[in-house]
Amino acid sequence: MTTTPGGADLRIVGVTKRFGEFVAVDDLTLTIPAGSFFALLGPSGCGKTTTLRMVAGLEEPTQGAILIGDDDVTWNKPYKRPVNTVFQSYALFPHLDIWENVAFGLRRQGKKDIQKQVEAMLDLTELSGLARRKPQQLSGGQQQRVALARALINQPQVLLLDEPLGALDLKLRRQMQLELKRIQTEVGLTFVHVTHDQEEAMTMADTIAVMNQGRVEQMGAPTELYENPMTTFVANFLGQSNFFDGDIAERSGEHAVVSVQGNRIGVPLSRVHSGGDSVHVGVRPEKLRIQFVDDAEVRDGENRLEATISDESFIGVSTQYLVDTAWGQELTVFAQNTGRDSRLVPGARVLLTWSPEHTFALDAAQSIDAGVVIDEDAVQPDSVGAPS
Asked: Which of 169, 199, 227 represents a domain boundary (last residue)?
């Protein structure tokens, strides 16, 4: 099935939302291109769901404007906006079968000849064989697809997804991530997806806006945010990072050299996000190469640090090593299990090497723990109507 509804950019211009003294969204400006898969990512309470609800018309902004194309929809009622929303709860009609659930929007509009449209949407969402079942007879993933089909059949210009996979188990959630991306690519609609799940956002979205305390910390493609974070919050919230403090000793050409406890660490200037000389130097655990110190090989231009293994954990696709530096700081290394060196055990002296291109340097005034998720399973989706 090929659907080509008219598309338009979604623009959020200077939007602020206050709940009493609490500022849930703080002077937010975003442009979401037509036809893109866009994710608002952040922890509970960051303002992402409140932003989505303002786009849907379920909350009114304290100030600012929301436009779809050239139409200002800031004060329009929800049913007068060219948007549809899929919530985590799905909100299917239990007394209607799947065919009638999907057809509901068209029937409410008074349309008569709807059979081809409904059947095409059931085919797109791989529900054709389940058309006459009731929602309670379906799995969670199937119910999610019904909710998606019911929203898409109205051909909105923007589809809003509010933690739509939050109720599914991990395996099914990962499967549905790929399904959602496939459907979005096929129909060509603008999807705006709210989630606290970093993997979910990076798997599906073309562009991610990482939100923190009502503002966007950084926005860009998933690879850009992960490889070149501009704040410690983004670096920690999107994956895991090792940080060590240092001072920029040189800036020359396209590279800088940071002095860290007597070690010279190279960083591309394009990855130095600090106006001062005191920085947090960051590197992802999987970027580090760990070798037994006596016969370690160092490639030209690589950064290097000596350390001692304090712990190792075999986790299937990789082994996690905890290592202590000479100055007593603990770092994490992920080594892919393509051939393990039996000498890499607790107490072994090792050399860590990595490319300067995998290094970033952030303003040392920022908290080194900003954005750290202590227990990801404890992070709950924002509740409806909460300032989040």
From this structure: 227
